[in-house]
Amino acid sequence: MRYHKIPDETVRRLPIYLRGLLISAGQGYEHISSQFLADFVGVQSSQIRKDFSYFGDFGTRGVGYSIEKLAREIKKILRLDAMRQVALVGVGDLGSALLTYSGFGSYGLDIVAAFDVDVQKIGTTINGIRIEDLSEIDDLGQRGIMLAIVAVPRASAQSTIDRLAEAGIRGVLNFAPCRVVAPPRVKIVTLDIAMELARLPYYMPAGGSSERPLAGDGPQQGIS
What we know:
This protein is an alpha/beta fold and about 220 residues long.
């Protein structure tokens, strides 16, 4: 079953709810109310109920939600009810860290292939994954891999996305700090870590001890 006309923000929040449910289950809870889940993940309970209403009625009045059942339903909605294989392109510092990150499994995601252009990396192994030559990404579709993570330099991002689309990839998490485009059949989510970090100083008090003027922002010398 596919869901149509669901707001992107609702889909964006579903993994947040799933994380809260998985943590609550790990703490021994079997049921959870929308208010408890809201407090746990930092979302209004009315928003949670509205988001869930797009997909059905998962709760029981006076009891709340069965954590196991709700987690199963969210995984089904997100198509995470079966293990999804993922390819990683770019095994620099960030890519190497992603290969050793253990949190993907909780969401039914498994990085099973990694690619790079560096001859010193090709053929080596990180966390059980052998690094392959980038020229081998063209057969990803034949290997049943439909998701990819791109952690390459900005200059290589668009050409990498183009090749992944041609190889049959349907979803890409892009860490390259630039805008990329893909055919309509390919969903792109771009996460620019530096840009996200750059939002935070706006919310901080002015005059912090760690502040220093950027080059060219200080007082001008020798100007009358």
